[in-house]
Amino acid sequence: MSATETAERVTLVRSFELPLADSWDGRTLDVRVVPYDTPATVADPPDWMPYRETFLRGAFEKQLSTPGRDRVWMNVEHEQGFRGAIGRSLRFDDHADGLHGSFGVLENADGDKALELIRDGFLTGLSLEFKALSSRRLNGVVQRVRAQLDAVALCRFPAYEGSAVLAMREEVDEPETELEPLPDMTRTSDVDDRLAALGFEPLTRAAKTSKPWNGSPARFTDEQYKRSTLVCRGQSDAPKTDCSLPVLEPDGTRNTNALGSAASVLAGGRGGLANITGAQKATAARKLIRFYNQAGIEPPLGLRQLAGSA
Question: pLDDT of 266-289, one tens digit each?
Fold first, then answer.
């Protein structure tokens, strides 16, 4: 392909990983339809020659900002036509990490079957059907500059990482409206102390860094190390002996490399953790999920499953 190129308007298909959400209380799926700036190796008919591809932010903006053009079917494994639809789009939002959308699943036998298969872990993928309207090649990667979204399909075999079901709700959130100012609800230190005694920590948006991680206890004071670690066994009064898996810098900054490493260890990587109970491991997973959220990063599916295991 040339440096700037408009592809033929044929329907192409891309599949994405579909991590399960931890909330399944309704029929509205919140999904990340397609990740942005995430190169992947793909292949298309008729020759099926592999190449690298990425979607640029705003690729679907023109379509989805045009009234009536944002009506998109959801089906299962690309079953075509009206009878193959199990849901329909409710709204779309462009975010830095990708195109997000909400889909309502139909209240019929096919919709119920699809939701049950998702819960069972059988439908583990999300697949995008689109037409490439404008593309270009840069550094060996085909960039989709403008595309038309035709349908979104639930599928069994994901091939492209970065998409996710973010939640399932009873209905789509109503548009935000301006509310009367709330009374001062500032917590006192006494309230924070009581929450800490019950195992709760204040939720705050924290700074993050992606610099190389160094979890050596020598970098921390005892208090800093205890705050940084995910597991304290309660067998010693010395945090640097009793506690494991630090993920925060001494100043409290979330280190994204440490988060990923800790998630791997909790899942059993590098030999896992010794001398902790299943309940302690689940508590550590929930704490790590909170750090992921505070850093503005989607937690891994396996971590969510571990958090609910006890």
Answer: 887 766 777 888 888 888 888 888
pLDDT above 90: residue 224:
yes
Structure tokens at 267: 């899942």
Three-class SS of 72-99: CEEEECCCCCHHHEEEEEEEEEEECCEE
| Alpha carbons 46 and 66: distance in angstroms, whole number | 32
**30 by DSSP, 3-state: which?**
strand
- Quote the pLDDT of residue 20: 42
In a domain, 183, yes or no: no
Residue range 106-147, pLDDT digits in tens: 888 888 888 888 777 777 677 888 899 999 999 999 999 999
Instruction: Domain count for the chain, please give it.
Output: 2
Q: Sign of torsion, CA 154 158 163 167?
A: positive
Helices (H) and strands (E) in the chain, counts: 8, 15
Angle between helices 256-266 and 278-294 (to 10 degrees): 160
Do 17 and 157 reside in the same domain of the chain?
yes
CATH number at residue 103: 3.20.16
The whole domain housing 302 covers 189-307
Average pLDDT for 48-76? 88
Residue of 217, 210, 208 whose CA lies nearest to 252: 208
Select from 169, 197, 217 the last residue of a domain: 169
Please give, one letter per residue, the 3-state secondary structure of 256-306: HHHHHHHHHHHCCHHHCCCCCCHHHHHHHHHHHHHHHHHCCCCCCHHHHHH
CB-based burial of residue 95 (10 Å sphere; 0-12 exposed, 13-18 middle, 19+ buried)? Answer: exposed
Can you name the residues that pair with 135 across neighbouring β-strands?
A: 5, 144
